[in-house]
Amino acid sequence: MIKKISSFVEVYKSLIKIPTISSENKALDHSNKNFIDLLSNYFSDLNFSIKNYQISYTNKFNMLASIGSGTGGILLSGHSDTVDFDEKKWTKDPFTLTETNDRFYGLGTVDMKGFFAFILDVISSINIKKIIKPIYILATANEETDMSGARHFIKSTDIKPDCIIIGEPTSLKLINAHKGHVSYSIEVIGNTGHSSNPDYGVNSIEIMYHVIQALLLLKKHLKQKYRHQDFSIPYPTMNLASIHGGNAINRICSSCVLNFEIRPIPGLTLTQIEILIEEKLAFIKKKWSDNRIFIKKLFFSVPAYECSHQDNITKTIAKLCQLNRTTVNYCTEAPFLKTIAPTLILGPGSIEQAHQPDEYLEKFFIQPTKNIIGKLIHKFCY
Ligand SMILES: [Zn+2]
After folding, report:
1. CB neighbourhood size of 309 (10 A)
2. Does residue 147 share a domain with residue 24?
3. Fewest CB atoms within 10 Å of the CB: 31, 32, 59, 79?
4. Residues 169, 317: one domain?
5. Residue 99 is assigned to a structural domain of this protein
6. Span 249-278, mean pLDDT?
7. Poorest-confidence range of 319-323, 332-336, 360-364?
8. Ligand 1 center–CA 168 separation, angstroms
9. 238: domain CATH number?
């Protein structure tokens, strides 16, 4: 046995206490440095080596803790940040771990700072001196915004574990695939003029009408051409989300903007989507040769992800933990981490509580989660 750190609840409490909100709104965005420092100290007390990386041009950090040498082993991964919270809707202090109704309440209890309390508890109770393959623990920054922590990590590391587990709240279901997400804005620029003579100008709403027709054809094409039976909606979806144009009833509309999103299934890449959009809009662009149609990506896109169920790692973990694999509709860091090693998503708590006021972890997840983490470490590192 190595040094036993504080109790599970004490550690859990200390992790929830430190705000690590990531937000596009700069006024709400927090550095995660204090959290990463605390986590680093915990793992350092358990004889792990610590490497912390600052994400360029930010006050955000990733932590990689490792113990053991050689190749293979396991990487247990989680994001260190949380979303913002609505003060009016929370009935409890988001930064105080509150134990009541057989639940632990607090921001990040399930999504997902709590996962590190589980890892620390399991590791401090096993004989770590006997491991023959490395254990890696990764805490990333900015998962809730641009996933820059995971993007940065895969570029900066040379580790090659046998498998990666992301402890997002899957209700302890084994997730081996999810859809991706990409969103675009299309602006059509016309020429304004008095509406009494339509020939004075170029009406951007009329051009947008053709753009929407082309996009709806693409939507149909995606539904017909791509299929993945593991998803409840087994094809890529498109949502036309908002449209704005025009400002006066007697003026020819000079600008019209449409925002839309596509959620690809595994097998449809972000590059393919871009090519398909260009193809579908080509005839409109050709007709209006004077550059009237401008497309730009909104936000940061996440590719679809799959760790095939034929993959040995998926089979091994499903059998070891006696779990059936399934898919989810939310995005994670898996498509990035998967470039290093086969990656699966498996963690305590329900996604239903993530990003919600009074986020909580049901206590019945505690023992099964510790058992699963223990089994995984034994399987891949002993
Ligand atoms: Zn999460």
Report:
1. 14
2. yes
3. 59
4. yes
5. yes
6. 96
7. 319-323
8. 5
9. 3.30.70.360
